[in-house]
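Lecture notes, unit on protein representations.

Consider one protein chain, 562 amino acids long.
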Amino acid sequence: MEMKNNINIKMVVGLMTGIFLFACSEDLLIENPPHLITADKLFNNLDGFENGLNGIYSNIRNEKSGLTSSVDLTLGLLINGTDLFVSNTPDNNKGASSLMSQWTTLNDPSYFMYENVFRWLYEIINSANTIINRANENDVNWVGQGNEPDENKNRVIAEAKAMRAWAYRHLTYMFGDVPLSLEESVGSNIKTDWKRTPVTEVRQQIVADLLFAQNYIPVEGSLPGRITRGAVQTYLSEMYLTLNNPDSALYWADQVINNSAYQLITSRYGVTSNEGGVPFMDMFLDGNANREEGNTESLWTWNFEYNTIGGGQAMLRRVLMSRYMSIQVDGVLPFQITVDRGGRPQSWIGMTKFAMDLYEIQDDRYSDYAIKKHMVFKTAEQNAPQAADILPPGYNYGDTLHFDWSEDISTTRFGVHDWPWSRKIEGTDPNNPAQTYQYNDIVYMRLAETYLLKAEAQFLLGLVDEAAETINVIRSRSNATPITATDMDIDFILDERGRELLVEEHRRYTLLRTGKWLERVQAHNQNGGQRVTSRDRLFPIPQAVIDANLTSIMSQNEGYSE
């Protein structure tokens, strides 16, 4: 595989969690062993702080990687069990697929995913707190990168605050009230009496962190793979909507949209621009995802790289693509696992029929370039270096097997293999398409979401005509029929977000923010939606967290056992 030159985020192992790196035990007798990395040694110059930030970014990418394996992919908690995504293949009670088809059986404080996610997010918070606190010490050498020392210092603090806000955003949507910590955790200040901070207060801290960050984080990001100012301002817009302040949400969305550096992709570009395709999908192709590769719409792209220290890997394809190699036609399993088909999937999570039916037929977001809706029988030459597909009786190479989504995935129709999937998440190792991971760069946030937040703010402010105009900017790019003010309501905005941001947005959070989660899950999710209750709007505080709070009682969310 050709090495990408845009991998700048490297793993810094154990950097902020109190784990020291050493080669052999006798070296510990040396007073100042040169290979021992501690916070005191690391955070004394700009390079040390850059390594610390790289460690945070590396940890953040685990949202797309799975915290322990593919079944507990954090993204599964964020999009599955909604109106757009449904559990498809059982995962033996190991992840979000089982959880969100069963709910009442598995959704309790002891379910392992909650503890894993809670710990992961607070690791990121403590890492950010460490950088923020130590950056304010007086003996740091901030010289470097051709910038003024104060400029480097403020930018480092800004990125750490943005990452802290990112983690608390997850925590508040998942768990509601959570402990608010702004100090580095060290051995001398370990607490066993944490209190849950009211969610509104935590979100005010998120806003404060983002307001600081947007002043100092550059428009293009400090390095490829790092957050941009546009992403920070888009998070501000969303958070102000969450806090019921649409005026401020509109202001911050406009700061991004009116910045000429950020532009929607409206024409073909990049690695397959001379082949068939649509502008909407070009940005999701490997080699096109980054801003330096021509993706003017990206506000934050996450970089992954095969066989590279710190390169990381993702598991979107494995979790979200249908298991095409298990499609049976007249007793034959015809389809080989190939690079062209995106690699080997496991199909824990699938789109709902409702999600498929949201599109007009001419919408580029519904095209075969965007959503896989069929399989073609291919020869050995077409599948090379893999073998030819095995032809069932009566079929020829070049014939098409069309998927059928007329009947939804449901409690009685579970484990459907010939089912559509979003092609945004395709990707595999070209030398080994059957392996677990993918290594293509992934667009994490883009300008289209900012437009949709702007439209929502305008709608809430009573600017309905303007909201329709804003949404039409998105729709016209994909050849969808323009709308008018009479089409506008919150459900249409949610539908449009589904069409545009399928797989990308944290759909659960969007539905919770708009007060529509329970209603739309019960209406459109046929494998688990009938089991959800108002209790399930929040996940339970992990039992391990409650048990570790030895000197104070930490309350549990309503409806869960204490």
